[in-house]
Design goal:
The chain contains two helices and eight strands, in the order E-E-H-E-E-E-E-H-E-E. An eight-stranded antiparallel β-sheet has the order 5-3-4-8-7-1-2-6. The longest helix is centred in the last third of the chain and has 11 residues.
């Protein structure tokens, strides 16, 4: 095979969960710092998010479950080109809902696709119980 130009090296993924769609709530450095969420590559693919263009929104049910969806509304948040976004109100609500510690990263697997109208939402299943105290509904 002949390749034009300088051959490019393959980029090796260094993600913690390369085969799972994961949303990470990064730990808070100090008062005044952003409350940041980061999607890994599988989560971006699952949500069909285009970084720098698409928006996501969180949803909550009466059983204490949190969900995420690609959706545009006044409450949605733009996903940056770095696959991250910040929102203090969502961060604090989810932290309170799951009783999370903010001094460690908290990770959620995106599971259980549910059709709601024209949108698909994914349940956020807490996957980091060894580093954070959480009460997670079944």
């Amino acid at each position: 095979m002949i390749t034009f130009g300088i051959p490019k090296r393959e980029i090796v993924s260094k993600e913690k969960y390369p085969s799972l769609p994961v949303l990470t709530m990064e730990h808070v450095e100090d008062k005044g710092f952003n409350r940041r969420f980061v999607l890994n590559n599988k989560a971006v693919e699952l949500l069909q998010v285009i970084p720098g263009v698409s928006q996501v929104i969180f949803a909550f049910d009466g059983d204490g479950e949190a969900y995420i969806s690609k959706y545009t509304s006044e409450d949605s948040v733009l996903v940056g080109k770095n696959m991250a976004f910040s929102n203090k109100k969502y961060y604090e609500h989810i932290s309170k809902l799951y009783k999370l510690q903010s001094n460690v990263d908290n990770e959620f697997e995106l599971t259980d696709a549910i059709n709601v109208g024209d949108s698909v939402i994914f349940r956020m299943k807490f996957i980091n119980p060894s580093e954070a105290i959480a009460t997670v509904p079944n």
